[in-house]
Amino acid sequence: MTVRERREREREDRERRIIDAAREIAEAEGWDAVTTRRLAERIEYSQPVLYSHFKGKDAIMAAVAIDGFAELAAELRAARTEAGLAEVATAYTRFAETRPVLYETMFTSAVDLTFASTETPAPLQAGFGELREALRATNGDEDLDAQTEVFWASLHGLMTLMRGGRLRREDHDRRLALLLQRFSGQARRGSFQPGRGKWQV
Amino acid sequence: MTVRERREREREDRERRIIDAAREIAEAEGWDAVTTRRLAERIEYSQPVLYSHFKGKDAIMAAVAIDGFAELAAELRAARTEAGLAEVATAYTRFAETRPVLYETMFTSAVDLTFASTETPAPLQAGFGELREALRATNGDEDLDAQTEVFWASLHGLMTLMRGGRLRREDHDRRLALLLQRFSGQARRGSFQPGRGKWQV
DNA sequence: TTCAAATCCTAGCGCTGCTAGAAATGGGAG
DNA sequence: CTCCCATTTCTAGCAGCGCTAGGATTTGAA
């Protein structure tokens, strides 16, 4: 029995090393540089061993992404408990800026980590939860989930476009300030509606 | 001289066929399905011919992306001239939803189409310009460029997260309505500032 | 000491983007 | 009309990718 346990522990260690190595290489040189051969060499095992841990390269990317969500949630939490919405937004953008590849991985559509599902890994929901609590303080409970989604999407859009070179980096603070203005206090009701039934899926 | 012209015309035709074929396959089966061999077969030339037109596959993707920006700008323009901000936002989301792969291509960081540069292809700026004019009507001229960038980023974030499965599609209209509420009318001044000097690049 | 099961590796498949160098094409000069 | 040379185009192949079948090796238990 104790043998079985030791082996399982070794397996877990090895899995961690795979994830860590993948993340390390990806953050330094991009995911194209993360080849299965290189990963195998790094953990000092042969290629096929990787496939006894993960279904494929995408699964490894997903594992790295989940790590990223956990870290993001932790940093947002720290910013929220000792400060307000502005600091949370700043923490969010700092996360995306200091780990650009990790951040990109978390939202790559290749890695389909479905949200709002019962089997959604906890770290994913945690990050969202932190944003929601930060928003609750200034916006109240009305339509809070949707409000959070919109605020989150706005932050995400800012970071994505900036990383892709579509927005000048030096104007980021001003943009963040404008966004926070929009999201400070209760939303005004009504008047604007999207589309006139044009919207079809 | 007329021979030279004919050849150049044929070259341009062929280039168009490459771009169109790439876009067609990509929209139907994703960019992984767009291989150089398949493109070559489609235009009835050999592989190396592609490289006399484009530096590589990325360059072909960029060409498709530029086409996408031109189309987006045209559709936003139509929505703006005959309606208001809400309709422009709806047109934007409809574009992203009906051509998901094309939209994704336009903002993929692999395709680095730098904005806000003198040699930025015109179609890229056109789309941004349409959003700006739509915002001017309800928001005035104050800080208009930055306001537009934030609004654009918000829309982009919504579409990106929805496409990636992070946001439920059926709540999109409500989110769009909330966003439009936030962006209807003048921004309130001040009070919120991002970060306290924490922000470093 | 032997054996079966779990573990791991060697070798290789089919594919990718891309390119060097040979072959074919076609307009202009004699 | 014929020849030549520049341009265009193709054949063939490189190095690398993700992934896997099947055999070799290790390992704990009998």
From TrEMBL, chains A, B:
Signal peptide: none annotated. The keyword Transcription regulation applies. It holds the Pfam family TetR_C_33. The keyword S-adenosyl-L-methionine does not apply. This is TetR family transcriptional regulator. Residues 12-72 form the HTH tetR-type domain. It comes from Paractinoplanes durhamensis. PANTHER family: HTH-TYPE TRANSCRIPTIONAL REGULATOR BETI (PTHR30055:SF234), HTH-TYPE TRANSCRIPTIONAL REGULATOR RUTR (PTHR30055). InterPro entries: Homeodomain-like_sf (IPR009057), HTH-type_TetR-like_transc_reg (IPR050109), HTH_TetR (IPR001647), MT1864/Rv1816-like_C (IPR025996), Tet_transcr_reg_TetR-rel_C_sf (IPR036271). Keywords: DNA-binding, Transcription, Transcription regulation.
